[in-house]
Amino acid sequence: MLGGAKRWLRGAKPADAAVDVSELDGVRALHLGSITIQSAMRIRDPFALELSYTRAMMCFLLFSSKAKRVLAIGLGGGSLAKYLHAYCPELHSTVLEINPKIIQIARSQFYLPDNDARLDVIEGDGLRYLADHSEVADVLLIDAFDGNGIPPDFCSQDFFDRCADSLNAEGILVINLWGSDKKFDVYLQRIEQSFAGKVLILPTGKPGNIAVFAFGREPADVRLASLRLRAKNLEQQHKIEFLQFVEKLAEHNPSSSNRLFMTSHLVGPSL
Questions:
Q1: Which of 55, 82, 131, 216 is geometrically suited to a Cys-Cys bond with 171, CB 3.0 to 4.6 A?
Q2: Which residue, among 169, 177, 229, has the nearest Cα to 196 in the 3D structure?
């Protein structure tokens, strides 16, 4: 926890409203009806990725150099949307956010840019959008926590099947899960079922957020030497610890000294 006195910008206490903003030691944070930080921004560097799990989610760049279309469900403070807009000019992002107040605060308090040719933030139901659209994205980013955790509709087998359907043949799902969630293994097994076991996990803390990557088609090159080389190249363009993340991928997934393997992380029947 950061030291110093926390200042609430909206509401005397986080429970007073559905959406609150606080500041502590130069970091502005978004809260959804609780003290849990949903999104954070360093005020002096508003387009950087302050939270480690958001930087981990950017590891889809290790596996895809041809992605053009990103679909995101859940805006929060707009950390990923802002970063993609500022530092990945080759990508077009569509973001679905059901809560108009979150969109307003992301723009007024977190420097989220207005919609333009590369960013389209839509007030709407992400679940309905997935149901109505197939093969529309190269990368699907899911960060849909509320004040009570991940909503039930965002962790069902049907939801993950729809995620798979929304991606093109070589698409990548990246979802933020909480490692200490008692149903984490259930969610992971459902993702593995929807993506035929082509899944990698990337823990970002103990306990903490876990970025889960699921692939429509196994990447052509998952040799560790290749991933390390790509990580070094990406670190020249981004303030993200890609090399550290490659080592964590090797540590937390089936691997040899040479490569990663896409095999089930879990033992048991499908759920």
A1: 216
A2: 169
Among the options 120, 143, 161, 185, which is catalytic?
143
Catalytic site includes residue 132:
no
The pLDDT tens digits of the residues spanning 5-63 come to: 455 554 433 333 478 999 999 999 999 888 888 899 999 999 999 999 999 999 999 99
Q: How much is the pTM?
A: 0.90
**Which amino acid is located at 77 in the chain?**
G
Structure tokens at 99: 């809560």
* Strand positions, DSSP E, the chain: 7-8, 20-24, 27-31, 39-42, 69-73, 92-97, 119-123, 137-142, 167-178, 199-203, 209-215
CATH 3.40.50.150 fits 52-223+247-252, yes or no: yes
Q: Give Cβ neighbours of residue 182 (< 8 Å, ≥ 6 apart).
A: none
Cis peptide before 207 (omega within 30 of 0): yes
Residues 212/247, Cβ–Cβ less than 8 Å? no
For 105-115, the pLDDT digits (tens) are 999 999 999 99
pLDDT confidence bin for 145, thresholds 50/70/90 = confident
Q: CB burial class (10 A; 0-12, 13-18, 19+) of residue 31?
A: buried
Please state, in angstroms and rounded to a whole number, the distance separating the CA atoms of residues 153 and 160. 10
